[in-house]
Automatic annotation (TrEMBL):
It comes from Platanthera guangdongensis. Belongs to the WD repeat L(2)GL family. Keywords: Exocytosis. This is Lethal giant larvae (Lgl)-like C-terminal domain-containing protein. Residues 958-971, 997-1009 have a biased composition (Basic and acidic residues). InterPro entries: Lgl_C_dom (IPR013905), WD40/YVTN_repeat-like_dom_sf (IPR015943), WD40_repeat_dom_sf (IPR036322), WD40_rpt (IPR001680). Residues 1012-1026 have a biased composition (Polar residues). It holds the Pfam family Lgl_C. Residues 581-840 form the Lethal giant larvae (Lgl)-like C-terminal domain. SUPFAM superfamilies: WD40 repeat-like (SSF50978). Residues 958-977, 993-1026 are annotated as: Disordered.
């Protein structure tokens, strides 16, 4: 009851009904820009023509890296992990398949989600037909459907053509459906053939025009010992599509021979590729994966510049074992396998071959990009790997290729403390500087040259004269950097390194606290070892254009003073009137220092029960017993507030203000509330004028934020040790960061960030919830640094969040609705480039391809021993359909659905059934539909012919006997018989309707009996045929 009255009183006294208070319409929480690699990355894709690398995350985000160092982030409302990610190359379209089996269609140029195609069944495979708008979608039932991207409507359309499980796999011998794991259009015949790889190991080569399986292999157990082996990965290892590598869950790696089939269904292959031993892989590679039971999760085949072809083999298991090896396929020696095991420190989730440009000479390099489990990106120069393999052929011991872990290019040492300050002057709108296209002037993020990955400390950017936002960072090595954060790519302005005299403090040089005073232009820096550095900049007159003009001075325009204290420095504050500096440590000590003399005036310790650190310090003037006194407010780590005299350190009260339940303190800030309820904050960067000290018209309160609650105390009462609570709000969740924000056109508000990524914006002083948003990616377990608000999160007074995830990514998040806060984002976000022509090469990887060499055990697979055979292969596989032909094929239903068959039967139910309509002749071609194409006709042809010869005489005899009997009863040679059939009287009889009806009824009854007998015979024959087929299949599998 008491609490409710207290809340009502506070709402009445300090309500936010004033027109000058922060309102919900002033809040617009959104991600302004993202730089770096997002946390939780899991899947990659690459557009080799546009040179765009896409990285999808587990929470529905997709990061794009384009040419000229451009970056962009796509965010879907559906925060679901990504399973498959593919580009429609050079079309500006990215397709993302998530775990909810929804296919997202992203327009890269407009950077919007233009369509979502929902699939009922679980999608287990996804593939694009190169240089077309068609794609294959395989599901858990073993079926494959075809989708088409409609460029005009920007949507996906389902085509009539489909590949049913029973046709591509066959149901004989299997208890149920088998998921499709991979769909591989056959190189050189991508519009005519496609290889379907099932989980049970069956490889089915499907003819698109023929609408049937032309070849199947791989479904037989290769060992006498039963073992679980399922297909996990697969890729082509031949430009002509005559060999494929398949990785299994038990660590096996097989190379299977696939025939190249011409248009007349003739198999084109080498004599050495005659399948004398069916269902046996051509090559079994032993790389050690099977010994440790490591599943082979992904495969990538590369051949470049006329040199050896390589197969990248990546495997990792749930137990923690992992390995990534590269093997050479054009080995001259048939006695050993040349391979390289890349020395990774964690499993690899994906790999792509991308293009990288060296900033110095613009030399194009092919780079192997590896996405690691932690979300980091590892880069290897592909030519270095190839060189290692070639040197290994000569039995030499070359050095292991070097790699680069992609990091933020701003600093070599991790950020441990940071502050973000905004200019108090209102923006005059876009300027000429804001429209500069500068992405190519920044360090290349995906460069493999270490010299290009960092901004040198000696580098200073002097291009901008109007800094809108200043970002100050303290680092683990003790360095202090000043950045222009106006453009969402940090520009280094000034770097301050630890002095040589501070080497003795090197072990604890990690910066832990930063405080900058604008009126005196003094920066206070404290580190882990207790060293306080005071940087006094040359004071200059503030111009009407910028408040950061002091940073435009030359290097050396500042003085440094140092003083050593006890404990790690956690907080600092400056009294601009007395030039006194207050410093708080993690041991509960508070030191007050004279800046001019660098001497300690006094020190006090405030021990607490649970938390001992001093989180916040602030000098304020308040009314104490009728007198205005300079008070130092101290907020301890357990959310207690203590007031002492600022000049002497004498206690103003005995107890201070304490909470009932101690909780970690996050923020202490003093606020002024006018008589009409308008709230203002003592944020020094908002104005250069001194705060109004007249307390007769304003009431000052202390805003205290902890992990569990937000409280407002009366400043005057707190100075006397009286706990007068004006407002309190318990938080629903665990808060990790709090900041006061202010808009130039409205009042102040409170931003609260929770550990689950939730962001609340509340008004002051009534703490009304205005908006609730979420910071995507904040909840990822790998982002442990986000829990440490000192270095990872900072917020400016105008509501701009800057979040750093160690050395991997930076998030620029805006809270308030403002214009011209950041510089022009269009140049850095322009990913897609129009006007790039499609290359004229045929099948290729993301690197240049050439004809394979006919050397070694791998070289003879698929390549004839004579040039004649090679030419024959080229002439046959080059035959393909155009996109128009493919569209016509896919637009036609090749198999009838069950529903369509039922509808057809319903339409024809009134047609009179005639026994002559049933044709049992075996020489008539079977229409396209369900068949036994899964059976290997090459191996079982003779047995089927023998079985057919046994059945055919019997069926022909029965058919002939039936026809003779029908002809005798249906002889149409007589006119009288015709008249009698249609109910007319003959010449010898009169017209008697009852007799005619009776005769027709008897005739129909006799026909039905004969039809039933024929149906029973046909059913028996079908059963015999089915049992014989199953028996033959079992025999062939032995």
């Amino acid at each position: 009851m008491f609490v409710r009255k207290l809340v009502e009183k506070a709402s009445k006294t300090y309500g936010s009904n004033s027109n000058n208070s922060l309102k919900a319409e002033d809040v617009s929480a959104h991600l302004a820009f993202h730089y770096g690699i997002p946390s939780g990355s899991s899947v990659m894709a690459y557009d080799s023509i546009q040179q765009i690398l896409a990285i999808a995350t587990k929470d529905g985000r997709i990061k794009l890296f384009g040419r000229d160092n451009t970056q962009a982030l796509l965010q879907s409302d559906e925060a679901a992990p990504s399973k498959f990610l593919h580009f429609l190359e050079n079309q500006g379209i990215l397709l993302n398949v998530n775990t909810n089996n929804n296919i997202e269609v992203w327009d890269i140029d407009a950077q919007i989600l233009c369509h979502v195609y929902m699939v009922n069944e679980e999608i287990t495979s996804f593939a694009i037909i190169r240089r077309s708008l068609f794609m294959y979608v395989g599901n858990c039932l073993g079926d494959v459907s075809i989708l088409k991207f409609d460029q005009r409507q920007r949507t996906l359309l389902c085509m009539q053509y489909r590949i049913p499980f029973l046709e591509s796999h066959g149901a004989a011998g299997f208890g149920g459906q088998v998921p499709v794991m991979h769909i591989l259009p056959q190189p050189m015949a991508e519009t005519r053939r496609v290889l379907i790889v099932f989980r049970d190991g069956l490889l089915s080569l499907w003819g698109i025009q023929e609408s049937k399986a032309l070849f199947t292999v791989g479904s037989i157990q290769l060992s006498s010992i039963p073992e679980t082996r399922e297909v996990v990965s697969a890729c082509w290892v031949s430009m002509f599509g005559n060999k494929v590598a398949v990785g299994y869950s038990n660590g096996d790696l097989f190379l299977w021979s696939i025939p190249v089939i011409s248009e007349n269904n003739a198999t084109v292959m080498n004599k050495k590729e005659i399948y004398a031993a069916p269902n046996i892989p051509f090559i079994k590679l032993n790389l050690g994966y099977k010994l440790e039971k490591i599943p082979i999760n992904s495969l990538r085949w590369v051949v470049s510049d006329g040199r050896v072809s390589r197969l990248y083999v990546n495997g990792f298991s749930d137990s923690g074992a992992y390995s990534l090896q590269v093997i050479i396929l054009n080995d001259n020696s048939e006695s050993r396998t040349i391979k390289l095991a890349l020395p990774l420190t964690e499993p690899c989730l994906g790999m792509e071959i991308i293009s990288s440009f060296n900033d110095g000479n613009k030399q194009k390099k092919d780079v192997l990009a590896l996405l690691l489990k932690s979300g980091h990106l590892c880069l290897y120069v592909d030519s270095d790997i190839e060189s290692f393999l070639l040197k290994s052929q000569s039995k030499s011991t070359p050095s292991i290729p070097n790699h680069i872990i992609v990091r933020l290019p701003y600093y070599e040492s991790r950020i441990t403390a940071a502050k973000l300050y905004a200019s108090s002057l209102p923006s005059s709108g876009p300027t000429e500087e804001d429209t500069l296209c500068l992405p190519d002037k920044f360090p290349h993020f995906l460069s493999v040259d270490k010299r290009e990955n960092f901004v040198l400390a000696s580098t200073r950017f002097e291009g901008f004269t109007k800094i809108k936002r200043l970002y100050i960072t303290g680092h683990m090595d003790g360095a202090i950097n000043f950045w222009d954060a106006s453009f969402p790519i940090l520009l280094l302005i000034l770097s301050v390194k630890p002095q040589q005299g501070e080497e003795e403090n090197a072990s604890g040089s990690s910066v832990t606290a930063l405080h900058f005073d604008f009126s005196s232009q003094i920066l206070i820096c404290g580190d882990q070892g207790g060293l306080v550095r005071i940087l006094s900049f040359k004071k200059e007159q503030f111009s009407s254009e910028t408040m950061f003009s002091f940073l435009q001075a030359k290097h050396g325009a500042y003085n440094i003073q140092t003083i050593k204290l006890k404990g790690a420095i956690l907080s600092a504050s400056i009294n601009t009137e007395s030039k006194h500096l207050a410093v708080g440590t993690d041991k509960g000590y508070v030191f007050v220092i004279d800046i001019k003399g660098s001497s300690i005036l006094y020190q006090k310790q405030f021990p607490t029960e649970i938390y001992s650190g001093t989180i916040s310090l602030q000098f304020e003037n308040c009314n104490h017993n009728g007198y205005v006194k300079n008070v130092l407010l101290i907020a301890t780590e357990d959310s207690s507030v203590i007031a002492v005299e600022g000049d002497t350190g004498n206690d103003l009260n005995n107890n201070g203000v304490h909470t009932k339940k101690p909780a970690r303190c996050l923020l202490m800030q003093t606020l002024d509330i006018s008589s009409d309820g308008v709230c203002t904050a003592h944020l020094q960067e908002l104005t250069q004028e001194k705060h109004d000290k007249d307390n007769t018209t304003k009431h000052s309160v202390i805003l205290l934020c902890s992990e569990k609650a937000v409280r407002l105390y009366s400043l005057n009462h707190a100075a006397q040790g009286i706990k007068k609570l004006h407002c309190k709000k318990k938080l629903s969740g665990h808060c990790c960061f709090a900041s006061v924000v202010s808009s130039h056109s409205s009042g102040v508000g409170l931003a609260l960030l929770f550990v689950n990524g939730k962001l609340e914006i509340r008004s002051l002083p009534d703490l009304t919830l205005l908006r609730e948003s979420a910071v995507r990616g904040f909840t990822n377990p790998s982002m442990k640094s986000f829990q440490n608000s000192n270095g990872a999160i900072c917020c400016s007074s105008d509501g701009e969040f800057l979040m750093v995830n160690e050395d991997q990514e930076i998030l620029f998040f805006s809270i308030l609705l403002q214009k011209a806060v950041n510089r022009n984002l269009e140049p850095i976000s322009r990913i897609y480039q129009r006007g790039i022509a499609m290359p004229q090469d045929s099948y290729s990887n993301p690197v240049n391809t050439q004809k394979e060499k006919k050397k070694g055990i791998f070289g003879m697979v698929g390549m004839g021993s004579k040039s004649k055979n090679r030419e024959e292969n080229n002439s046959e596989v080059s035959c393909s359909y155009t996109v128009e032909d493919l569209s016509a094929i896919f637009s036609t239903a090749n198999f009838q659905f069950t529903v369509e068959t039922m509808n057809t039967s319903a339409k024809d139910e009134n047609v009179e059934l005639d026994i002559d309509d049933i044709n049992l002749d075996d020489h008539i071609d079977k229409p396209k539909g369900r068949n036994f194409s899964a059976l290997n006709k090459q191996n079982l042809g003779k047995k089927f012919q023998e079985f057919k010869g046994l059945l055919k005489p019997k069926s022909e005899d029965k058919l002939a006997a039936g026809k003779e009997k029908i002809e005798e009863e249906k002889s149409p040679g007589s006119v009288d018989h015709i008249k009698k059939k249609y109910g007319y009287s003959t010449a010898n009889e009169t017209y008697i309707p009852p007799s005619i009806a009776k005769e027709r009824l008897n005739d129909n009854s006799r026909k039905l009996q004969e039809t039933g007998a024929r149906s029973s015979e046909m059913q028996d024959t079908a059963r015999s045929f089915s049992s014989m087929a199953k028996e033959l299949l079992r025999v062939s599998q032995k």
